[in-house]
C-alpha cells in the first residue's frame, strides 16, 4: 500500500477509531449477573485490534448523509459486536478451526470451546439490546434492529457461512462463489452503511447509493481477502494463510486466477469510489476506505 494512502486513511479515520474503541470499552462494563470470566472473554474478542471497517463505515455513512458520527456510535458498536461474534464462532473447531485471529490466540484456545460459543452468543444478543435501547427515535431503532437481524440471519451472514462450510458440495462456479460472498461478507458491510445512514435520517436516494457502494466494496473486500489468503503474510494479517486451499474453499483466485481476480477487485473498487464521490466532499472518507480495502495487506 502506498505510504500516502496509509497516511490519508489514518488521518481520515483515527477520530472515528478513537470514538469506536472508547464506546466499545464502555459497553464492556457489564453489571451484576455477568460472570467476570465471561466479561473478560467478551473484552478479549471485542477489544482485540481489528481494522474496525464495519463501524467506521457506519460513522462515515452517517456523516456522508449530513448526520453526526456520535449519534451513529451505538449502531457502529452493534455491527462490530455481530462481526466479532461471527469471528469467534467461525474460528471454532467445528467451523474453520483456527488458532490465530487479530494476531492473538483465538477465543476458544484461550477460554475453551463452550465459553467461546457463549461469548459469541452474548455479543449477538447484546448488539440488539444496544440498538433497541440507544437509537432514537424508536421507529429508527426498530428499523435498525430489523435490518441488522436480516443481515446477520439465515438469508445473509449465517446462510453464506452455511454454504461456505459446505463448499465441497456446492457447484464450483463464480455464481456460487458470489452468492456466498454477498451473504457472508457483503451483507454486514452494507448494513453497517445503512444503519449509519438511517440514524442520520438519510433519504431513499442516499440509501440506494450507499447500498451500491456497499455491494461493490463487499465483493472487492472478499476478493482481496481471498488474494491475501493466497499471497499475503500471516505476520501482517494476524491470522493463518493458506486456509482456503487447505479447506478446499471456493475462492476468486482459485476460479479466475490471480491476475483476473486483481483486475476484478480494481473494477469493483472504482465502482465503489464513484458511488462515494456522488456525495461530493462528504463522500471522501468512503472513497478512501474503498481504496484502502483494495490495497490493504491485513
Ligand atoms: C459464524 C455465522 C458465522 C459467520 C462467520 C466472519 C465469518 C463468517 C467468517 C470469517 C472468514 C472470512 C474470510 C470471512 C470473510 C471476510 C471477513 C469477514 C474477514 C474478517 O473481517 P475483517 O478483515 O476482520 O474486517 P477484522 O479482524 O479486521 O475485524
Commentary on this structure:
With 298 residues, the protein is an all-alpha fold. The protein has helices at residues 3-27, 36-46, 53-64, 73-90, 107-111, 113-134, 138-152, 157-165, 174-199, 204-231, 234-237, 243-246, 252-256, 258-277, 284-295; strands spanning 100-101, 104-105. The protein has a single domain (3-295), classed as Farnesyl Diphosphate Synthase, CATH 1.10.600.10. Helices cover 72% and strands 1% of the residues. A two-stranded antiparallel sheet has the order 1-2. Strand 1 and strand 2 form a beta hairpin. The N and C termini lie close together (11 Å). The mean pLDDT is 94. The chain binds geranylgeranyl diphosphate. Residues 50-51, 53, 83, 86-87, 89-90, 102, 157-158, 161, 184-185, 222, 225 line the site of geranylgeranyl diphosphate.
Descriptive key words:
binds geranylgeranyl diphosphate, 2 strands, 1% strand, 72% helix, 15 helices, mainly alpha, single chain, 298 residues, globular, Farnesyl Diphosphate Synthase
How many helical elements?
15
Shape: globular
Please indicate the percent range of residues in DSSP E strands (runs of 2 or more). under 5%
Question: Briefly, what CATH class?
Answer: Mainly Alpha
- Radius of gyration from the alpha-carbon trace, in angstroms: 18 Å
Q: How many independent structural domains?
A: 1
What topology emerges from the helices and strands here?
Elements lengths: L2 H25 L8 H11 L6 H12 L8 H18 L9 E2 L2 E2 L1 H5 L1 H22 L3 H15 L4 H9 L8 H26 L4 H28 L2 H4 L5 H4 L5 H5 L1 H20 L6 H12 L3
Antiparallel strand pairs: 1-2
Helix pairs in contact: 1-3, 1-4, 1-15, 2-6, 3-4, 3-9, 3-15, 4-6, 4-9, 6-7, 7-9, 8-9, 9-10, 10-14, 10-15, 14-15
The site of geranylgeranyl diphosphate has 16 residues, from helix 4, helix 8, helix 9 and helix 10.
Amino acid at each position: 500500500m502506498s505510504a500516502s494512502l496509509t497516511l490519508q486513511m489514518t488521518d481520515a479515520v483515527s477520530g472515528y477509531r478513537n470514538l469506536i474503541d472508547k464506546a466499545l470499552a464502555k459497553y464492556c462494563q457489564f453489571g451484576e449477573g455477568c460472570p467476570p470470566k465471561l466479561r473478560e472473554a467478551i473484552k478479549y474478542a471485542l477489544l482485540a485490534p481489528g481494522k474496525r471497517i464495519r463501524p467506521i463505515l457506519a460513522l462515515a455513512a452517517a456523516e456522508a448523509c449530513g448526520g453526526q458520527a456520535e449519534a451513529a456510535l451505538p449502531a457502529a458498536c452493534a455491527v462490530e459486536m455481530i462481526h466479532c461474534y461471527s469471528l469467534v464462532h467461525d474460528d471454532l473447531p467445528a467451523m474453520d478451526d483456527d488458532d490465530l485471529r487479530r494476531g492473538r490466540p483465538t477465543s476458544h484456545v484461550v477460554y475453551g470451546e463452550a465459553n467461546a460459543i457463549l461469548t459469541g452468543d452474548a455479543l449477538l444478543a447484546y448488539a440488539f439490546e444496544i440498538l433497541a435501547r440507544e437509537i432514537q427515535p424508536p421507529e429508527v431503532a426498530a428499523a435498525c434492529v430489523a435490518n441488522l437481524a436480516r443481515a446477520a440471519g439465515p438469508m445473509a451472514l449465517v446462510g453464506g457461512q452455511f454454504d461456505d462450510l459446505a463448499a465441497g458440495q456446492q457447484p464450483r462456479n463464480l455464481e456460487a462463489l458470489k452468492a456466498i460472498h454477498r451473504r457472508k461478507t457483503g451483507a454486514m458491510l452494507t448494513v453497517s452503511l445503512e444503519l449509519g445512514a438511517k440514524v442520520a435520517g438519510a433519504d431513499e436516494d442516499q440509501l440506494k447509493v450507499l447500498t451500491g457502494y456497499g455491494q461493490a466494496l463487499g465483493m472487492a473486500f472478499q476478493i482481496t481477502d481471498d488474494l491475501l489468503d493466497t499471497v499475503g503474510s500471516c505476520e501482517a494479517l494476524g491470522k493463518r494463510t493458506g486456509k482456503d486451499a487447505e479447506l478446499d474453499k471456493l475462492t476468486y483466485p482459485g476460479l479466475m486466477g490471480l491476475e483476473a481476480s486483481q483486475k476484478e477487485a480494481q473494477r469493483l473498487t472504482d465502482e465503489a469510489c464513484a458511488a462515494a464521490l456522488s456525495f461530493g466532499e462528504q463522500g471522501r472518507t468512503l472513497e478512501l476506505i474503498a481504496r484502502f480495502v483494495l490495497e490493504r495487506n491485513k
